[in-house]
Amino acid sequence: MANQALIVGATGITGSNLAEHLLSLGGWDVLGLSRSQSRIPGVKTLGCDLTDAASVKTAIGDARPTHVFITAWSRQDTEAQNCIVNGAIVRNVLDALAGRGVKHVALTTGTKHYLGPFESYAKTQPETPFREEQERLPGENFYYVQEDEVFAAAARDGFTWSIHRPHTLIGYAVGNAMNMAATLAVYATICKETGRDFVFPGSPQQWQAATDVTDVRVLAHHLAWAATHKEAANLAFNVVNGEIFRWKWLWPRLAAYFGLEAAAYPGTPNTLEDQMKDASDIWDGIVQTHGLQPNKLSHVASFWHSDADLGRQIETFNDMGRSRKLGFMEYQETLQSFTDAFDRLRADRIIP
């Protein structure tokens, strides 16, 4: 009998790449629980409002998935609201599936587990590399609330669980709030079209410090691995490429992909939101000139989110020892993570 996956947030950057991976493996039926329709062939979409328990229960109907992958979140104005809404998303799904024989639940959170929520993001200075056994930070964090919902449901229903903490996600997606690859591709395209300097927008600390990122394909593979290997049960995992780099090394290589010269770093932040505040009409013109898919700038680029990552004033990278010891050995070159995503954005006429 095939495993049946229920991917919560199946149209996001993580959910869509996970769906593609599971289907490529064979032996998986894939259900997608989301507000919008999945564009991945082979995924059956169960449409609902994840924040509404009744809507979730109706959408799930009589489905009996063996594995649940929770990859969704909804940004709110305050962290207190984030905790309420995002905790409810997890609870709504797992309550609807209570008593149906779920074997494993995988929850994707992120490095804000160590850095804190948006309201106090990177205001502490935890020791690097981040390790899974580090204690939770004081204060509210919706990642902790989501974890606790998984733990409570596991105690009730007897399934195993895994927690996955990626760093900055790099990969193919459109219309996703956390997609740095698309954001930097749009920024580079606008710089090339207008003659603007392609200047690193972040802090001096991020320009100089060691860091890492997570190719979403590595995350998808890690989710599938943990869900099907008993040695990974009931553990939290960092998930990153395995390569440590510095932005001062990577930036000119990204520039070269677009046929640009990287501008000299000015030594102070020059945020993308500030640089691109007048760029909506420019982007519309680029779309028209190059015959691109008719996406608005706000749909393909999330300047605020990349600014948060690139503006940090502390060093941030993650230890992968726990996964390596248990047999997950994937490694991904970071430059190729970006260029593969750029190639696919070009092939789909998202960028010229």
Explain what this protein looks like in three dimensions:
- This protein folds into 2 domains: 164 residues, Rossmann fold (3-Layer(aba) Sandwich); 127 residues, no CATH class.
- The protein is globular, with a radius of gyration of 20 Å.
- Helix 2 runs parallel beside helix 3.
- The N and C termini lie far apart (44 Å).
- 45% of the residues are buried.
- By secondary structure, the chain is α/β, with parallel strands linked by helices.
- Helices cover 43% and strands 12% of the residues.
- The mean pLDDT is 95.
- It has a 7-stranded parallel beta sheet with strand order 3-2-1-4-5-6-9, sandwiched between helices.
